[in-house]
From TrEMBL, chains A, B:
The keyword Transmembrane does not apply. InterPro entries: HTH_LacI, LacI/GalR-like_sensor, Lambda_DNA-bd_dom_sf, Peripla_BP_I. This is LacI family transcriptional regulator. It comes from Fibrisoma limi BUZ 3. Residues 50-104 form the HTH lacI-type domain. PANTHER family: HTH-TYPE TRANSCRIPTIONAL REGULATOR GALS (PTHR30146:SF109), LACI-RELATED TRANSCRIPTIONAL REPRESSOR (PTHR30146). It comes from the Bacteria. Its EC number is 5.1.1.1. Coiled coil: none annotated. Keywords: DNA-binding, Isomerase, Transcription, Transcription regulation. One of its GO terms (molecular function) is transcription cis-regulatory region binding.
Length: 382, 382
DNA sequence: TTCGTTACCGGGAACGTTCCCGGTGTTTTC
DNA sequence: GAAAACACCGGGAACGTTCCCGGTAACGAA
């Protein structure tokens, strides 16, 4: 009853096992195995995409010609080209970037990994970078590591797998192992760090003059008569929090003020912890008369806590933040803060990456340090 | 001097033109054209990627087997599998997602297009969506249309070209033509609108009860004694600004207050225009005693303007915003506002998309309306 | 023994592009 | 009027995967 598809014989057929749920046969005379295609297994009925060959067939030309017409380059008759363009419109053809990238080995895409983006800073950086990159014809895919090392590694892996041409990163506060970024370097995929960076990786970096900014902030506090200046510092894992701490110390030293260890607290950047430490500082036998925080959200949290305790700002205690978030102008009193050129950070990072992407020869990694500026508002002077 | 590569003859060779900068010859006896490969044209020295076949060659097995081992499925000897895994680690092999997506015709990626993301709202939505999507194994690429219709179209085109499996959109305030989104529908790529949506497209939508929220806000103003309530409305192109306006009108009508046309101003959501109109309202012969704005940034701008004019809030004029941005709790006085479940908007949109992506049969588009809640702060009651 | 079954594995065709290379007319040049 | 140049176009091999299908050895049962 089973007929060999080759010799059409019915006998001399053996069963030879069930493979993937389908009976297989063996024809002894033909010395060949065979099985019968099941009805639905013919094709998974994949939705047909209109491709370059569909256009080619329609116009009776070759796919090479269609490709040439689409890329709008050389070796194409204007008439043919127009015909292709018309057909493309008619069939609503969309080029498949996947195939394109596969053969070109480049995706015209750069990845951006940021640790968070509900605060003002990172979105603004991304927009700055994106504008520059878009002008250069690059797409951008944004990843959000959520301050989690695992997520960051997963993000990096995903970007590597999708073969981005370059990477812009600000790492998480947890990140101490940078192997997932070195994987890009090994493949000659340029990486640029911004804002937060690994000091012992030889990559391009964009940052601001954190130390000088912090110095100016603390100097300003000293010059307005403060002596017990507390500092809520960021985690030690972040270079910029180390630098801001250094700026703080520089100022104290230069003005001959001894550093009180109890006034310097390094924490994990969460508002919960910030709240705890602010209260702790205020509860000290000798509370500080000024507070310099690692960033604006922390300063604003401090502002709320201090006001809720009925203390006067800046009379009883002065506050300085860092980065001049728009909110800092809206709170009452306005927050004195160190502004950084957020948009430029993004733009400069993107430009650095682009230069690296387009340079033919070996590119020397480069570090760009942008200036900071002290913005004085009501939280330090009445 | 020129030898035919076939017959090795030297005479009977003609030049037959220079094509792409290279001399071409014709051998009359072989009846064949030929040219000589230039040295550097051999290969563009493309950096070699380590692929599945490299691993296969190294282990002396076929690429099919390596592929099987990597996908960790059936029909693979545990020993072979382990050997492959070891080699993968040793050679630092990274799978090429482009090739994978090309053959599978799916990218496991969904695109998100938002009109802006410096304000609190959209980043938060994105995070909500991303969490849900990541759990389901999807990657996310975020596009930022910057409230520009052209950019939005470009974004949509790029996402289509890179073959995302689904799309989450909040369109720009300029968008009146939705053809670029219909292109996804034509290809059976599910689209979910959130926050801002096109009413006459049959797609899934996630929104909040704008009308009820606005009603509650205005009702609250009326109940606290206000009668001349102004409304700074959003552009008519956005369904949610229309709905909020409707809620405003409902409340006035229900409480028997006639609508004053001069008190309802629709504008383009920029702070510059907001400032102008706020001042305009305050300069009216009969200025309003309350202001309900389309969103929180506008309300906060109003708050600043009003305070700078020396007017008291809420005594002289009360303010209500919309969406409960974190800033609204920080300004002084605190801003009464209508909160919406921002995170849930993202999550729900993602879930809707996922259901559509995984459902076998035809999926009926669905609209989810999430509740709003009035948050009363100092800008309306002392 | 001999057949049926299981457990693996390899070959090769997709997927949708680009690019190289070689063809064929037609036009220019000497 | 032939040789050289030009203007177009087509074929087919990449790119790096997955998937189908068929092969082979080993083993259990009849």
């Amino acid at each position: 009853m089973v007929k060999c598809p080759h010799c059409q014989q019915v006998d001399a057929i053996n069963k030879t096992g069930i493979v993937r749920g389908k009976q297989r046969y063996f024809c002894k005379s033909c010395q060949v195995h065979f099985s019968f295609p099941t009805a639905e297994a013919t094709r998974p009925m994949r939705r047909h995409q209109v491709t370059i060959v569909d256009i080619a067939k329609e116009l009776g030309i070759s796919k090479s010609t269609v490709s040439r017409a689409l890329r709008g380059q050389s070796d194409i008759h204007p008439g043919t080209r127009q015909a292709v363009l018309d057909a493309v419109k008619q069939f609503d053809y969309q080029p498949n970037l996947l195939a394109h990238s596969l053969v070109k080995s480049r995706t015209n895409t750069v990845g951006i990994i940021v640790p968070e983006f509900v605060s003002f800073f990172f979105p603004k950086v991304i927009i700055g970078a994106q504008n520059v990159l878009a002008d250069a014809g690059y797409n951008v895919v944004i990843c959000h590591s959520n301050e989690s090392y695992e997520t960051e590694v997963a993000n990096a892996r995903a970007l590597l797998a999708s073969r981005v041409d370059g990477l812009l990163v600000s790492h998480t506060k947890e990140t101490r192992n940078f192997e997932h970024f070195r994987a890009f370097q090994r493949r000659d995929i340029p990486v640029v760090f911004f804002n937060r960076f690994c000091e012992d990786m030889t990559v391009s970096k964009v940052t601001v003059d954190d130390q000088a900014g912090a110095f100016r902030a603390v100097e300003h506090l000293i010059q307005t008569g403060r002596r017990r200046i507390a500092h809520l510092a960021g985690p030690d894992s972040l270079a910029n929090s180390r630098n801001r701490l250094n700026g703080y110390r520089d100022a104290l030293r230069q003005y001959g003020i001894a550093e009180e260890p109890e006034l310097v607290i390094s924490y994990d950047l969460t508002l919960e912890k910030a709240n705890i430490y602010i209260n702790h500082l205020l509860n000290l036998p000798q509370p500080p008369d000024a507070l310099f925080t690692i960033n604006d959200p922390t300063a604003i949290e401090a502002l709320q806590v201090i006001k809720s305790r009925g203390l006067r700002i800046p009379d009883d205690i002065a506050i300085v933040g860092f980065s001049n978030d728009p909110v800092s102008a809206l709170v009452e009193p306005g927050l004195t803060t160190v502004s950084q050129p957020i948009n430029e950070i993004g733009q400069e990072s993107a430009r650095l990456l682009l230069r690296q992407l387009t340079s033919e020869e070996k590119f020397e990694p480069q570090t760009v340090v942008l200036p900071t500026e002290l913005i004085v508002r009501g939280s330090t002077v009445a």
